[in-house]
Hints:
The structure holds two protein chains of two kinds. Chain A is an alpha/beta fold. Chain A has two domains: about 30-60 and about 75-210, Rossmann fold (3-Layer(aba) Sandwich); about 220-290. Chain A contains eleven helices and 13 strands. Chain A has a six-stranded mixed sheet with strand order 5-6-7-3-8-9, sandwiched between helices. Chain A is globular, with a radius of gyration of 21 Å. Chain B has one domain. Chain B is about 80% helix and about 0% strand. Mean pLDDT of chain B is about 80; it is low at about 45-50, about 60-80 and about 170. The chains are: A alpha/beta, B mainly alpha. Chains A and B meet through helix 1, helix 2, strand 5 and helix 3 of A and helix 1 and helix 7 of B.
Amino acid sequence: MSESDIVIRARGVSQRFAGRPALTEIDLAVPAHRVVGLIGPNGAGKTTLINRLLGLLVGPGTIRVLGLDPARERHALMQQICFIADVATLPRWLRVAEAIRLMVRLHPGFSAAVCETLLANTDIPRRAHIGQLSKGMVAQLHLVLVLAVDARLLVLDEPTLGLDLLNRRRFYDRLLEHGRSGQRTLLITTHDVAEIEPILTDVIFLDRGRKVLDSSMDALAERFVEVVVPPAVLTEARTLEPCAERCVRDGYALIFDRSRGRDLSAIERLATARNHPTLADLFVAFRTQSNA
Amino acid sequence: MKQRLRPILWLLLREYLEHRRLWALAIGLGLAIIALDLALSLGGQAPAGGLHVMYHSTRALESVSGNRTGTHMIGSLAALGGYDLLLNTIAVLFALTLAVALFSYGLACLYDERRDRSLLFWKSLPISDAQCVAAKAITGLAVLPLVYAVTGLTTVWAAWAINIGLPMTAGPTPPMTAARLVGFSALVLGVLPVYAISLTPGLGWLMLCSAAVRRHPAIIALGMPLLCALLNVFGLPNPIWHWVAAPLVPAGVGHALQSIEAGQAPATALAWVYQPMSQPDPWGGVILGLAFLAAATYCRRRHAVLA
């Protein structure tokens, strides 16, 4: 992969707040046209990393986003990227129509026509103040505004935090439908791992400021396997050092890492089911391992 | 350069939309004065032309305060002449309302976007912190005073036209001539550039407090000058009064108003206001104000992730 195919390149990115490490030596290489999930628990450093990538924070390490230094060339960078930093950051005093008008004037990549098309599929009233809209509508409106920008990189930091299930689903459906068009790369952080899993091409796990996994979803599917075994063979299965185990209806689900070189054929023969582990299960497995 | 300036123009639209209550306040005040003037004129209750606004105001004041001060005020006001009083009343009302609007705007303009987290939305657009702060400073230094001046003058002209046009309101004093009103209008508009210069340190200080203080910026914004004033009692210098508070009313305005009342040309009156600009003091204040604005820009950049 050539350097020009890399949208985000970070080397040795660290950050400390009041002497405590928030990020430790993070290296990243996010290729173009990918949908990357940045996943981690509260305090893992996701938002800090996003802020470093967007030039909202400065600190040790080198970062290039679309070939630009976010701290020094933020203005040029913001013309090519869009981000939703959190839910409910749209100004409450703006009317919907005024927000579109301002975006047209302030963002050279914003298309009013695209915005109108996207907005037509919602029930958001144009004349309403944003403060009068429901939380779900505000999230939808914000997504419409950023999707109408012809940006090469779209960064979403916990965009659905606090929304109900229906609104979260609507948000990701719209993102899936329109967000991957053109030359766009998506970087998403969220707690709702299960909801974004179907749209991800790559995943990065962060834990306590450290990167614990950086892989494509295809590679993950090849590397990890989840087998469900009856209680009678649990002891035998444990000798193969699973990454994680949990109790399920038919017995125990165990996740194995094929890269460890263990012969799993015997246990796979005894298993009652064989699946690809979900991201949530993998994340718990990595968390458990790093705690051990 | 042009590309850097264009967003500032559109950020002025943002300021208009965000602080529309301040524009509405000026228009509402003007409409209220005109409506009151018209109602009292048509009602024929006025003792004398333009004096009636002051008359009823002081009567209301008297009934609220429960003393007889108002009666004495009416007596002394009558001696000045109704139309001059009306004009002065409107000018003072608009000046006081502008002061309140500027104080409110200066303290809120950078604080509110942190409080409601909309700062993160503005940070997602290709506009710099310097452009945002510049647009806010232009709004406070030029746009707000211009809007209040134009609205105030429109109100003065409308009130003048009402008093000229309705014969029943003819009072004991002759109406102010249009020429004098033109002179007054020219003075008000001509003084705006000087006002912007005088206001720079004061507004810069308020915007710095708005950008830097985590809670209750008004406490720091007013507390620091009060502390300096207290130190001044013990003989220590009070730079905040000298650089920030004292220039809020530009030197020479009083002389300029007297000059207009004496029937002199607007250029002569304006000379009183522009003459202090040849001294270093106003420009020192501008430098201090710009330093405050630069510090506010730095704080806005630093506080992005603390919102």
